[in-house]
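Question:
Write out your own:
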Amino acid sequence: MTYSNAAKMAMLGIPEAALRQHGAVSRQTALAMASGALARADVHLTVSITGVAGPGGGTPEKPVGLVHFATATKDGGLAHREKRYGDIGRSEVRRLSVVEALNMLLEQAG
């Protein structure tokens, strides 16, 4: 798990400039996280989740409930999905995000 920007940079190789430009919660960061995990682990498929689960932390551009997902595969597959769950509570945003990530993994593996 790479919750902080420092962990994203150290563990997944995401450039600091990319995080500054796009933010931790973005399509670009989700894709970079999935690709970085794939490059650093002996796996064939990865998934990443980055979002604003709440209860605070949202902005007009990135409201509570915004979540970006990405998968990456060894054969070059890369997919992104964005969900806007709304301010439905941290636990529910996280639960729905896990379900979505698992669905994406199943789609990529299938």
Observations:
- Helices lie at 5-12, 16-22, 27-40, 90-109.
- The chain is about 45% helix and 20% strand.
- The chain has a mean pLDDT of 96.
- The two ends are 25 Å apart (CA to CA).
